[in-house]
Amino acid sequence: GAGMANVIAPATESIMSTVPRERAGAGSAVNTTVRQVGGALGVAVLGSILSASYRAGITPSLDAVELDGLSGDARELAAESIGGTQLVAEQLPDIAADALVAAGTRAFIDAMHITALGSALVAALGVLVVLRWLPGRPGEVDLVAAEREHQPVTVA
C-alpha cells in the first residue's frame, strides 16, 4: 500500500521520460503490465512463502497435540492456515484446543516474520539494482556549462 504509493509515480515518470513521445502509449502499456504482473507475482510468492513457513511451523505441534477422534482431513486443514487450525481446535477438548491455538499463533507469527524478511531482502535487492543500473540525470551545473558552450560569441 504505502510503499507502492511512494514508488509508482517516480517509476512511471522515469519510464515515460525515456520513451519517445510517439511511443508514449506503448511505454505506458508496458509500465502498467509490468506493475500488474509484478504485483500478482509478489502476492503469489509471498503467499507461498507464508503458507510453507506456517505448515513447517505447525506440523511438529500437530504431532504433539492429541487429535484423537479427528480425521486426517482435520489434520490437513489445521496445517493449511491459522484459520484451519482454529476450526480444528473448536472440535477438540479445551486443553488440546488451547495448545493447538497457541501453537498455531506462534507458527503464524514466525511465518509472518520469515515472509517480511523475504520482502525486505527483495526490496534491498531492488535498491541495489537501481543504484547500479538506473542512469542519473544531469545536474544543474552540467546544464549551465552546456548553455555556455552554445552561446554566440560577439566579435568587436
How would you explain this protein's 3D organization?
With 156 residues, this protein is mainly α. It has one domain (2-129). It has six helices and no strands. The protein has helices at residues 2-18, 24-64, 72-80, 82-89, 94-133, 140-149. Helix 2 packs antiparallel against helix 5, helix 3 (72-80) packs across helix 4 and helix 4 runs antiparallel to helix 5. The chain is rod-shaped. 10% of the residues are buried. The mean pLDDT is 87.
Write the layout of secondary structure elements.
Layout: H1 2-18, H2 24-64, H3 72-80, H4 82-89, H5 94-133, H6 140-149
Helix pairs in contact: 1-2, 2-3, 2-5, 3-4, 4-5
* Terminal CA distance: 64 Å
What count of structural domains? 1
- Run of helices and strands: HHHHHH
Main β-sheet description: none
**Proportion of residues in helical segments:** over 70%
Key words describing this protein structure:
single chain; 156 residues; 6 helices; mainly alpha
Write a compact overview of the structure shown:
By secondary structure, the protein is an all-alpha fold.
